[in-house]
Amino acid sequence: MNIKNTTWKEFLINKGFDASVSKSFIGFISWKEGENFSNLGEEINDVLAGYEGKIVAKDVVYDKYKSIGILFFSKDISQDIANNVFKAIQSCEYNEVYDINDIDSI
């Protein structure tokens, strides 16, 4: 999949997630397990900038890439769905965005 001009909402729909889940996706923040996130508040503000309405935050972990994250949705979804959304996003980032030969420096 060429993600160059694809939004995360479009990506999630293309990956087979329910349209209502995909449309409710606001954004995410992720970091490597064991790392401190010194400017988490600033990152949250950046993700939510310009958004008005209900916000539901879901804590997520993906062991394959040792990633931790927070997903933001405009409606409540199950933790299982949130975990699957995070897995899809992380897999995309690691397989289509990052240089796999330079993955330890991410």
Structure commentary:
- A hairpin with a 4-residue loop joins strand 2 and strand 3 (67-73).
- The protein is an alpha+beta fold and 106 residues long.
- Helix content is 39%, strand content 21%.
- It has helices at 8-14, 19-24, 40-48, 79-97, and strands spanning 25-32, 56-62, 67-73.
- It contains four helices and three strands; from the N terminus they run H-H-E-H-E-E-H.
- It starts with 7 loop residues before the first helix and ends in a 9-residue tail after the last helix.
- The mean pLDDT is 89.
Chain-wise SSE layout:
Elements: H1 8-14, H2 19-24, E1 25-32, H3 40-48, E2 56-62, E3 67-73, H4 79-97
Antiparallel strand pairs: 1-3, 2-3
SSE pattern: HHEHEEH
Number of helices: 4
Q: What's the arrangement of strands in the largest beta sheet? A: 1-3-2
Oligomeric state of the chains present here: single chain
Low-confidence stretches: none
Report the average pLDDT across residues. Answer: 89
N-to-C terminal Cα separation, in Å?
A: 22 Å
Descriptive key words:
106 residues, alpha+beta, 4 helices
TL;DR of this structure?
The protein has 106 residues and is of the alpha+beta class. The protein is 39% helix and 21% strand.
